[in-house]
Specification:
single chain; alpha+beta; Alpha-D-Glucose-1,6-Bisphosphate, Chain A, domain 4; 7-stranded antiparallel β-sheet; 5 helices; 30% helix
């Protein structure tokens, strides 16, 4: 069975195309606003004035207890028209974001065509394809949830932005080497909280 995957994700966001494009093109901020998936991001090369050629190393995960190390290079950045990237590492392939205005909303589509090269994914594709696919869909649902929070936070004055609920963190945080953030113990029991 092939280790190739093709996913199309659809987000419907109450925002302008400019707002959505601005959030998604800033790779350095991914671990802050989409921490359930992006554990670490490092920009290796800035690329040209439009971001073409920008190269970014990523350490990511989904719901399942494994992580992925990969790199993307921006191959197209049309701003509000969308952007494209080429992936290498545990994923090899291409991804394209397309943004379509829809009144007070934006339809954001992500077309992700990859080949899984991480040995675990490559060897177990024949058995785990449904789980790997579900893992991707989970990650994109978390991304849609997180970008909504980020858009809300960015629209508020700085003094109020801290009141926006934090985005969901990674699952199996201990296995990824990144500890989940838990609220400080206050002495209250679950009965008090509920």
């Amino acid at each position: 069975m092939s280790n190739e995957y093709h996913f199309i994700s659809r987000w419907h966001l109450q925002a302008s195309v400019e707002e959505v494009a601005e959030v998604l093109r800033d790779a350095k901020e991914l671990p802050r606003w989409w921490p359930s998936v992006y554990l670490d991001v490092r920009v290796i090369e800035e690329g040209d004035a439009h971001g073409i050629g920008r190269t970014v190393d990523l350490w990511t995960k989904g719901w399942l207890p494994y992580t992925l190390r990969w790199r993307f290079t921006t191959t197209r950045n049309d701003g509000v028209g969308g952007l494209s990237l080429r992936a290498a590492g545990d994923f090899v392939g291409e991804g394209t974001w397309t943004f379509i205005p829809d009144g007070n909303f934006v339809k954001a589509f992500y077309d992700w065509r990859i080949r899984a090269e991480k040995p675990l994914l490559r060897r177990l594709t024949w058995l785990m394809r449904p789980a790997f696919s579900a893992n991707h869909h989970w990650a994109m649902r978390k991304g849609e949830e997180s970008i909504r929070l980020e858009l809300t936070r960015r629209r508020l004055p700085a003094v109020e932005a801290g009141r926006v609920a934090p985005p969901p963190g990674p699952t199996f945080a201990r296995l990824s080497g990144r500890r989940a953030k838990f609220p400080r113990w206050t002495g209250r029991t679950m009965r008090d909280i509920l």
